[in-house]
Amino acid sequence: MKFRPTKKISTFYPPQRTLMGPGPSDIHPRVLSALSRPTIGYLDPVFVAMMDELKAMLRYAFQTANEVTFPVSGPGSVGMEICFVNMVNPGDKVIVCRNGVFGGRMIENVERCQGVPVVVDDAWGEPVDPNKVEDAIKKNPDAKILAFVHAETSTGVLSDAKTLCEIAHRYGLMTIVDTVTSLGGVPVKVDEWGIDACYSASQKCLSCTPGLSPVTFSDRVVEMVKKREEKVHSWFLDLSLLLTYWGNTTRTYHHTAPTNSLYALHEALLMLQEEGLERAWARHRRNHLALKAGLETFGLEFLVKPEYRLPQMNAVKVLPGVDEAEVRRRLLHDYNLELGAGLGDLKGKIWRFGIMGYSCKMENVMLCLCALETVFADMGVKVEFGAAEAAAYHAYAENPLPMRPSDAARVAVA
């Protein structure tokens, strides 16, 4: 047939990479195994029971008692959109914080919902300034929502979500918070901080397959959606319709759920529960400190000040005179190691080292430092061989991990 491809196509086998970019992260064999389990119907009673377990484990990850907590079928961008399309009505004024790429995407979501964005800008690499936010709210007393990115993936900066939510609630605003890169890697405390709507992604610190976006909504968001005077401008993301499938009392058809991906998320969340949130946060911090110690021996500087740095997303300035794209190309070609490039205003100016989820481990940090050492030397950069690895080992020795909850329980019994 003339419509046949001219090139012979065979089974696709991807190379085995070490993923140390901005996402996705490496996937644990247990999670990969879960993907291959038999597909069953999305209304099968067994599957419905698994859905309830998924929701319970997501509540643990988000640290919330919100009933409306579930994974949306789609990546983190869909999680973002479900928050805005349900909460923003035409004409609503929304305070949006922009200190990187993903704050900019929030602005576009407001505009597409026919809302009115009031933009609070901060420099890329700086956290959201609470004083600027409060000033914007005072100048716009009719604003309904404050939206901001907790962990800005494009810069590796962490903003003070607790303070920002407190300011919003003091003036009667609801909050939409992006935790795509923070959930599972640093503290995210939805109930304690008073977050109204929060979304994340499966492929970052949760180390699951891409394509799912965990979300959680407070009761007052759900009530607000129920009282909307006009329909949500998306059938697929209409929260009131999705709850007919993910709700506690009903399980009616809405869309064909990605069953195998949900198996994988179930396994990833189970592993997070087994490790314990506090230990997961400490693991990301420990590997960050080791990576930082090694990178600094090359003369590399971090974009973000220490007190605002994300441990799982390390934005590092490119060495003067070094071709940043060639460094990434050689790491990928020679070592099967993926790093991230800069986005937007930071294109060509930074490398982004991701150590998220299953990628956040000593062997990845040491491989990265060893590979960088060789690549830099081959490109004419003066390096002291072995110094980066030694610095990392010292950092590991100085920062031991706490025990897993299960190990601590056994020790207590003994």
UniProtKB/TrEMBL annotation:
GO terms for molecular function: alanine-glyoxylate transaminase activity; L-serine-pyruvate transaminase activity. The keyword Transferase applies. SUPFAM superfamilies: PLP-dependent transferases. The keyword Amino-acid biosynthesis does not apply. Coiled coil: none annotated. Its cofactor is pyridoxal 5'-phosphate. The modification N6-(pyridoxal phosphate)lysine is found at K204. Keywords: Aminotransferase, Pyridoxal phosphate, Transferase. Residues 50-342 form the Aminotransferase class V domain. One of its GO terms (biological process) is glycine biosynthetic process, by transamination of glyoxylate. Substrate binds at R352. InterPro entries: Aminotrans_V_dom, PyrdxlP-dep_Trfase, PyrdxlP-dep_Trfase_major, PyrdxlP-dep_Trfase_small, SP_NH2Trfase/AEP_transaminase. Belongs to the class-V pyridoxal-phosphate-dependent aminotransferase family. This is Alanine--glyoxylate aminotransferase family protein. It comes from Pelomicrobium methylotrophicum.
